[in-house]
Amino acid sequence: MLSAAVLLSAAAFNETEACTGISLMSKDSSYVLARTCEWGGSFLQSRYVAVPRGYTQNALTPTGRNGVEFTAKYGYVGISVMQDEFVTEGLNEAGLSAGLFFFPGYGKYEDYDAEKNASTIVDVQLAAWILGNFSTVDEVIDNIGSIRIVALSADTQTAHWRIGDASGRQVVLEIIGGKPEFHENKLGVLTNSPGFEWQMTNLNNYVNLYPGNAQPNTLAEGVTLSSFGAGTGFRGIPGDVTPPSRFVRIAFYKATAPQYATGFETVKETFQILNNFDIPIGIEHGASAGPLPENVPSATQWTTSSDLQDLKFYYRTAWNSTIRCIDLKKVRFDKIGFVSRPVDKVMEQPVEYIDIR
Known about the structure:
Layout: H1 4-16, E1 21-25, E2 31-38, E3 47-51, E4 56-58, E5 69-71, E6 76-81, E7 83-92, E8 97-102, E9 120-122, H2 126-133, H3 137-143, E10 148-150, E11 159-164, E12 170-176, E13 179-184, E14 189-190, H4 196-202, E15 217-220, E16 223-225, H5 243-255, H6 263-274, E17 300-307, E18 312-317, E19 324-327, E20 339-342
Parallel strand pairs: 9-10
Antiparallel strand pairs: 1-2, 1-14, 2-17, 3-6, 3-20, 4-5, 6-7, 7-8, 8-11, 11-12, 12-13, 15-16, 17-18, 18-19
């Protein structure tokens, strides 16, 4: 049986993680996928991991480390949550990106059957299975039926996944009634619940929004309404942090983002856009939620951006806003062992003091 610590850590992550995802294409056809990861209840103990080719894992099931065995065909890097094997977002050396997004109250995994452990994997390890095994979205779709995806415990909620490859194709995987369903994500954004198709339909409620300023409107002779400032074409865009509101907002922010020449410039733009989706501690906690957590500066604990052509994985954290980069082309996936290190060497925001004399 799994230890209480493993069950507790998985349940804490799976019941509370929230996220906002965006993708952008540069003029040189670099495809960049970025996202935030939120949890305002405690420190997620996130680590960056590098997994070599040939590394073998046994997936967890509700009864132990006795699930499907999988060996990495491709090396990959990513960020884990709570435990090293719980890779929440990552990029492999073939240019495939995979990430888990919280999906509470929607979807339903297969019921756990101990007699089928050999093909069973828990949801929090699915991204690792995808990154280690496949190079394209098509390969993931063709092989997803070979495994059974279950929850680690009956107390955890469901997830859905964003999967993208270097061609610029992106899909959303949702498990409905125990069956995997893939949705082509041509819009290139994702948040959480409700389901992806509902979120796309809901965008029609904001057909009136447009970039720039509203035109002056004359109500009567001598009475003309005009903009107070820039951006009045977006009057009415939702500003709260619920998943539907974040989906609408990130969709319009993406649609109005300039296209940059290179992947690196595009990566920097994704961080700029996702600045707008940082969730500060406090607004998610009602009076019944108890005291605010200590030592967590933001519900948005980290943000990543992956360049699928240049094979670079970037991240920053709530404790250190410096953007850091792992260049997969420089990682010897045939030589290294399994690497796991804290995302922050020191959990302290760097400050540069300006000396004026």
